[in-house]
Amino acid sequence: MLKRKIEKQLLNWRNTKERNPLILKGCRQCGKTWSVNAFAKEQYKNVIYLNFFENPNYKEIFSGALEVDHLTMMMSVFLGPDISFEANETIIILDEIQECPEARTALKFFKLDGRYDVLCTGSLLGVKGYGEKPASIPVGYESILEMYPLDFEEFLWANGISEEIIIMLQGYLQREEKIPEALHQRLRELLLQYIVVGGMPNVVQNFVDSKQMNLVLQMQRDILHSYQDDMLKYAEKSDKGRIRDCFSSISKQLSKENKKFQYSLVKKGSTASQYLGSLQWIEDAGIISRCYNLTAPELPLSGNAIPDIFKVYMNDTGLFVAMLDDGTQFDILQGNLYSYKGAIFENLIAGVFQKMGRKLYYFHKDTGLEVDFVIRYWGKATLVEVKASNGNTKSTKTILKNKDKYHVEQAIKIGDYNLGREGEILTVPHYMAFLLRGV
Could you tell me which residue ranges the AAA domain spans (predicted)? Predict the structure, then answer.
């Protein structure tokens, strides 16, 4: 059974006195349904479960009056007489709530009534062209929590690395001390496995149980096919082909030396006006994230972001690798990445930062200066260079030498080496990027 960080967040919600109905939002197959059901069974005496995707007839419960007593009576009609509604002891789970807009409207009435907790899941929630919108979105009467595939720390838990070891790693980072060689090598190995396995829960569990990479790859490609099916099924007719073309171009976009997203690579002669909405569809579905260029590597980063100049990364590293040629997984595990290794490790670190809740930014100038990421770290703008193995940090050093111009005092180099420091640059192994938590 995989341990997920969302469990703690759900428990915090449960312990909040004036809690709203909660919507757990995330891409398909990231583990929402399993997590909410496990949480509900542990925390509540009575669990009422409605899945609108598997049982479309449940929509009829919300087709009439939305008064809470009427809704619970209708649930009893559909689910049978054995279910029980007790105030403060009952949770109602509305799975795939985007399939029933009226159920989302009803969240306001559950909040005002206050007797029962309501926990919902949503895939493709708010995605353009997906289903009908609620007649009334219950603004102020619902809370939304984002869920992602497993991050690297959760992957470590799944593979037997205890929280005590992670706390120990955090101590090494704070003291800037080298990691003991045996632990260093084990974590390097797990990092390479995470790159190819990724964080989709079923994929991770299969890998932990079987260690069979052929099965992992088949499951990942099944997920990718399901995403493409969603694009064809739910997108508006005029957008279907463009969304698919945008999605297919991601690996090409990241293979360039300058990884700025270029619409001309989606289809020859294409423009932003033609494909901007298609890219937004994929982002709203939770499949990709954008990393915005900055006018200057200074705080506040959001204030310096250029909205129409960005890179695009896949949110799950395993799915990204599965989009590449057969044999890529074996090459990565053997350390043979050749010219594409930069794209793979950049995508990895983008996913690590994104799952930490960091918004993604980078810095690129036409003069040739380029830094992979810029983050806020312990109150300061911090340059982050990502190297597949090792390499120079020419742009970072140039910026650090020109403090009067760029106002940057610290940088981090993430690569395949142990923890250490080179003057103003902290060197961090790939597997410790998730510990860069200071803001």
Answer: 19-156
Domain span(s) for CATH 3.40.50.300 in the chain: 6-146
Lowest pLDDT segment from 16-20, 209-213, 234-238: 234-238
Q: What are the beta bridge partners of residue 23?
A: 120, 144
Handedness of CA 124, 128, 130, 135 (dihedral sign): positive
CATH domain 6-146 topology: Rossmann fold (3.40.50)
Per-state percent for the chain, helix, strand, coil, to nearest 5? 50, 15, 35
Give me the numbers of helices (H) and strands (E) for the chain, helices first please.
19, 14
User: Do 126 and 6 contact (CB within 8 A), yes or no?
Assistant: no
Euclidean distance between CA atoms 375 and 296, whole angstroms: 12
Does residue 134 surpass a pLDDT of 70? no
**What residues have CB less than 8 Å from 328, skipping those under 6 apart?**
196, 321
In sequence order, the β-bridge partners of residue 373 are 384
Q: Are 23 and 93 in contact (CB under 8 A)?
A: no
Which residues lie below 8 Å from residue 234, measured CB to CB, with a gap of 6+? 124, 127, 129, 130, 131
Helix or strand holding residue 193 (H, E): helix 181-197
Handedness of CA 303, 263, 251, 280 (dihedral sign): positive
Give the pLDDT of residue 51: 97
The answer to whether 285 and 127 have CB atoms below 8 angstroms apart is yes
Secondary structure (DSSP) of 313-338:
EES-HHHHHHTS-TTHHHHHHHT--G
- What number is the average pLDDT over the span 416-421? 94
Work out whether strand 117-122 and strand 143-146 pair parallel, antiparallel, or are unpaired: unpaired
pTM, to two decimals: 0.94
Cβ distance 148 to 118 under 8 Å? no
Please list, in sequence order, all residues whose beta carbon lies within 8 angstroms of the beta carbon of residue 143, skipping any fewer than 6 positions away.
Answer: 13, 19, 20, 21, 22, 23
pLDDT-based confidence at residue 128 (cuts at 50, 70, 90)? low
Helices (H), 235-340: 240-248, 250-255, 263-266, 272-284, 317-322, 328-334
Distance CA 422, CA 391 (A): 13
| Residue type present at position 196 | V
- Beta strands at 380-386 and 373-377: parallel, antiparallel or unpaired: antiparallel
Separation of alpha carbons 164 and 218, rounded Å? 34
**Bridge partner list, 146:** 25
Non-local CB neighbours of 409 within 8 Å, separated by 6+ positions: 380, 400, 403, 424
